[in-house]
Design brief:
Elements lengths: L1 H20 L2 H4 L4 E9 L2 E11 L4 E9 L4 E10 L10 E14 L5 E13 L4 E10 L8 E9 L1
Antiparallel strand pairs: 1-2, 1-8, 2-3, 3-4, 4-5, 5-6, 6-7, 7-8
Length: 154
Amino acid sequence: MKKNIVALVVLCSSVMGLGIITPAQAQMGRSTIGPSLAIGGGQTSVGIDSKFGVSDNVSARPFVYFPSGGTFFGSALTYDFNLTNTGSRVQITPFLGGAVSIGTGGINNSTTVGLVGGADFDVTDTIQLKAALNVPITSNNSYTTVNLGAGFRF
């Protein structure tokens, strides 16, 4: 439980730090936070996923997940392909980038570097859905995951 609290504090610190150093015009309407599921390695983990617009096409994406027997937290840095879609209310923004995650507890004590790709789906002005595929490029008890989540824009 203590490690879960530490991971949550790290996520909140990242959120506050990015809010302080990111220009206001880049943040407007591009930041989200919300619940998420990570599916892979024979288990499903519940967590919190967030996104902060650093520039027009770059986002930092801190996260924390709580699999059985540990905690994973870290961040991804992605390039967002801002596609314009004038025919529909749903805006789709594909992204590609890299991620670092730190696992704590049990056999999950490892640091993993990986590639991430996916898309954000703006359903309304305040709700965004996300789907991503995380592929590890290090070989230390890590596995490919599919992440599905929802974010509340602020």
